[in-house]
Amino acid sequence: MENKSYETYARVYQGILRQAVKFLNWKPPLCLRGAGMLEILPKTLKVRNYNKVLIVTDEGIRKAGLMDGLLDGLKSQGIEYFIYDGTVPNPTDENTVEAAAMFNAHQCDAIIGFGGGSPLDCAKGAAVMAEAGHENIRQYHGLLKVRRKLPPVIAVPTTAGTGSEGTIATVITDTENKTKYAIMDPALRPEIVVLDATLTTGLPREITAHTGMDAVSHVVEAYINQSNTKATRSMAEEAIRLIFQNLPEAYHNGKNKKARDNMQYGAYLAGRTFTRGYVGNIHAMAHQIGAKYPVTHGEANAVIMPYVLEEYGPVIHEDLARLSDAAGISEAGETVEEKAQAFISSIRDLNASLGIRETILEIEEDDLDEMVDYSFAEANPLYPVPVIFTKGKFRDMYLKVKNGPQSD
């Protein structure tokens, strides 16, 4: 399949899809933004007649007490709640089935995803599996496979990066095969999003760094892809400005609520951007690294990003130059190529300032065949990337990510 005829097929597929998705419902979630907004959520749920809710989170969030105010508010509104805290990093198909079983057993009205990207994705997966009548979530892998109304999902992110609160996607890990796959359908868009920066002020630096760079990768991949709209480009430019201006401050001074608020909003905009513009080859690689090795998704994206952007070459220079302008990196008199190169260098510099490494040594060459196959299958023909990678190119990129620039 590594030939021109397949590339032609992929571009035709993407072109047809680009026209078809114009008819989908792209209405954004109700966004409650601001410090203390979590206190508003129980009243909002009561108004919508949600009297029983399942909260999907993880054990660390529950033990940290971040949900205590929400739980008190639910009690005050007479809303009964049940908690599923079994979500693991890179949530699994088993997690979604377990959470859905709890939702059904208690006849809940809505699902609250509370936490980082893993609980949010698990909450979406649980919504898919609620009352599904089977335990095979993999059958929904891909685009527009759900095709039915789901229980409402309320997203309360406690990090700033995954963007899941603003997307129509969830990423699930196949327990048996240790691979990741995405489910994409407008039915997965959360009904309500709560962006309360006070939930993120205690984040460790490493999580701040990894999730922040995850948001950068969302903006970059969506912006350079071929399915953008005027609205998504505008959101991407605003998101990259907010992230570049606030991520270093959020990393070094985590108590700065303004920086945390701007990062949350930037990550949310990035999520809305890539839910329409898609991600690309960077994510197709990162998903497989995260499924096989103890590497966070954000860190994998951060490391992979400059290698892939360099590989794309001049075809993305104009887009990167515009992102460079939006991020405040460009200098007067620079050419498009110089701005693009400066933007790629800024990614490496930002990684270094956030303590993110340049390579992922955990990658095992014995795993490459499988990882290459899954990455190619995820990216093609769906992702409207600027350059379609062959399987051989994916292999080359994995080796660069493992060995560094010297592998050229």
Automatic annotation (TrEMBL):
<dbReference type="InterPro" id="IPR039697">
    <property type="entry name" value="Alcohol_dehydrogenase_Fe"/>
</dbReference>
<dbReference type="InterPro" id="IPR018211">
    <property type="entry name" value="ADH_Fe_CS"/>
</dbReference>
<keyword id="KW-0560">Oxidoreductase</keyword>
<comment type="similarity">
    <text>Belongs to the iron-containing alcohol dehydrogenase family.</text>
</comment>
<dbReference type="InterPro" id="IPR056798">
    <property type="entry name" value="ADH_Fe_C"/>
</dbReference>
<dbReference type="Pfam" id="PF25137">
    <property type="entry name" value="ADH_Fe_C"/>
</dbReference>
<keyword id="KW-0520">NAD</keyword>
<feature type="domain" description="Rhodanese">
    <location>
        <begin position="98"/>
        <end position="155"/>
    </location>
</feature>
<dbReference type="InterPro" id="IPR001670">
    <property type="entry name" value="ADH_Fe/GldA"/>
</dbReference>
<protein>
    <submittedName>
        <fullName>Alcohol dehydrogenase, class IV</fullName>
    </submittedName>
</protein>
<dbReference type="Pfam" id="PF00465">
    <property type="entry name" value="Fe-ADH"/>
</dbReference>
<dbReference type="InterPro" id="IPR001763">
    <property type="entry name" value="Rhodanese-like_dom"/>
</dbReference>
<dbReference type="GO" id="GO:0004022">
    <property type="term" value="F:alcohol dehydrogenase (NAD+) activity"/>
</dbReference>
<dbReference type="GO" id="GO:0046872">
    <property type="term" value="F:metal ion binding"/>
</dbReference>
